[in-house]
Amino acid sequence: MFFLSFLVIPVFSLLPYEPCEGFTIANNSNLSSLKDIQELFSYCLWSVYNNPKLDFEAFYNSGIANMDLNIYGNSKDIGCRQVRISPETLPYYQNCTRVTAPEWTNALVITRVDDSSDLSGLLKLDTEIGNIEVFGTGLQNLSFLRNLKTLKCVSYELQNITNIHNNPKLTRLGWDSLKDLKPNVHECTLNIQNNHPDFCLTTNELQVFAEFSIKYERLQAKLCPDLTRPDGEKVCNWGSSIPSDCQHLIGEVIIDEDNESDTWKLSNTTNIYGSLTIQNTRELLDLGFLGNLRQIATLNIGGHSLLRILSNKKLQNVTLPKMKTSPFPYSGEFIIQVDGNSMEIFENRRQCLFYQRQLKTPVKYNGFSCDKLPIAEGPGREEN
Ligand SMILES: *[C@@H]1O[C@H](CO)[C@@H](O)[C@H](O)[C@H]1NC(C)=O
Ligand SMILES: *[C@@H]1O[C@H](CO)[C@@H](O)[C@H](O)[C@H]1NC(C)=O
Ligand SMILES: *[C@@H]1O[C@H](CO)[C@@H](O)[C@H](O)[C@H]1NC(C)=O
Ligand SMILES: *[C@@H]1O[C@H](CO)[C@@H](O)[C@H](O)[C@H]1NC(C)=O
Ligand SMILES: *[C@@H]1O[C@H](CO)[C@@H](O)[C@H](O)[C@H]1NC(C)=O
Ligand SMILES: *[C@@H]1O[C@H](CO)[C@@H](O)[C@H](O)[C@H]1NC(C)=O
Ligand SMILES: *[C@@H]1O[C@H](CO)[C@@H](O)[C@H](O)[C@H]1NC(C)=O
Ligand SMILES: *[C@@H]1O[C@H](CO)[C@@H](O)[C@H](O)[C@H]1NC(C)=O
After folding, report:
1. Rounded distance from Cα 61 to ligand 2 centre (Å)
2. Residue 143 lies in a domain
3. If you measure from the C-alpha of residue 230 to the centroid of ligand 5, how many angstroms do you get, rounded to a whole number?
4. Are residues 337 and 222 in the same domain?
5. String of DSSP letters for 148-186
6. Centre of ligand 8 from the C-alpha of residue 251, in Å
7. What SUPFAM superfamilies does this protein map onto (predicted)?
8. What CATH number is given to the structural domain containing 89?
9. pTM
10. In this structure, are 83 and 223 located in the same domain?
11. Pocket test for ligand 3, best of 76, 95, 118 (most atoms within 8 A of CB)
12. How far apart are CA 184 and CA 212, in angstroms?
């Protein structure tokens, strides 16, 4: 005998996240098989729980369509697939090291738990997992996922790899082990929305999101003010004098005639959280002092270009040899602004396009795109 509490089947709807009540099969002491409803399909959440004789795994393996599932407390469940954490389900998910799900549904959903819940079982998650959604919790941080090294987002469609929303006490992720996003740059979408007003990302977290050029729906986050990192790399605030020996610099970095002679202090800097402006310098010839700079990223979205090279006297070579990713966030508009310098920075279209390709970001040179520059004279293919 079934207990079917709600049955809402939007057969003609192809919108998986359209709100719907869902479908529940629960607390049936004698139910052992679901083979009679093999053909039933719903995009709504299926909750199947506390049916002590039911072998849900057999049903799952029999080729049912990909559905959003919340399965626990049956004779056989589906292990670490589509893990749905709430106070009732928590005891069933103590041993997962890897969580998976079909492409369009979340691998891990966490809701209604708070800091009094024992989430220590999730510390075992250490390899790649799919999309994560955390909402409606009373958690202050998600550091029970601190051993996570790789997040894997669906590649066939842009989905929120991570959707952290409506957690009124949440101020941090606490994901400092995170190193890698899969499958590729530009293919993951993040949404951080309606959490605690002080919610912040650490330099490590922002660095990883920027390196993989994630897209985002909303990014309601500040940068955490921490000056230490678990990897021991030094973090400094850009202030009244150029700080020395800092791999990570927080601030709107401006190099100009007053401090161009101290630029050697930036030789170990790999990351800037803010923006970089080189302007009005008198003696600077090249940007060799930024030879280790890899990334510029900010959470102050919507301001000026993150990389500006303006009105310098002798500067001619603007190569940033280690910078291989675009400043974050990438808006698709002109991001690198090179304007009003006394020397010719790009002699022809090829030089400009080469620079643009290395930094994976469009250049605006003296008000125009690279295409407006003259084609190089002499032999050689024009690269576009
Ligand atoms: C199943 O039993 C649990 C525990 O008694 C109860 O909280 C839940 O509401 C029941 N579910 C349904 C759909 O009857
Ligand atoms: C479960 O099966 C037992 C034994 O066949 C029967 O006595 C009992 O009434 C059944 N329970 C329900 C809820 O059908
Ligand atoms: C987790 O693993 C322990 C030790 O192997 C085992 O005793 C326990 O039943 C497992 N818990 C779950 C929910 O699988
Ligand atoms: C991401 O999440 C937000 C908020 O839940 C939602 O509105 C948006 O459609 C999602 N975007 C994608 C690409 O899934
Ligand atoms: C996360 O929150 C817990 C309290 O629930 C706290 O003990 C811990 O220090 C916090 N971790 C981080 C990284 O903020
Ligand atoms: C560099 O000089 C400019 C102009 O005087 C000033 O605004 C900026 O704060 C200085 N920065 C550092 C770190 O010296
Ligand atoms: C850069 O790092 C090297 C090696 O740690 C160190 O010897 C050097 O003093 C650093 N230079 C600056 C300018 O911080
Ligand atoms: C420009 O500077 C980079 C490093 O700062 C250097 O490797 C390169 O040779 C320079 N190019 C020219 C044409 O001088």
Report:
1. 27
2. yes
3. 15
4. no
5. --EEE--SSS--EEEEEE--TT--B---TT--EEES-TT
6. 27
7. L domain-like
8. 3.80.20.20
9. 0.87
10. yes
11. 95
12. 7
